[in-house]
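Here is an idea for our session: we take a single protein and study its fold together. Start from the sequence, derive the backbone structure tokens from it, and show both lines together. Once you have written the record down, we can walk along the chain together:
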Amino acid sequence: MIIEIKDIAQFEEETKEGKVIVDFNATWCGPCKMLAPILEKISEEHKEVKILGVDCDVNGQLAAKYNIMSIPALILFEDGKPVDMKVGFMPEDNVLRFAKLK
């Protein structure tokens, strides 16, 4: 299950522990819509990683804080710290490697 982020406080709470993939997206973005089912599948098959969805139109402050200029953008957090970032659509194998799950 992808956890949809409503505000900065929720984002900070959800990213403070463990491995977390944050998907910065927007409802109008075609590549974001293609990536969503891949992330949903990973969230169901890999319970060791949490996946968050951040709609950049709703949470512009978060997008600005992490310098999101293009979407979809994935940021990998480990114990509250961003450790890697990828921009653009990725197939499942690439997402798994990005998250160090494969």
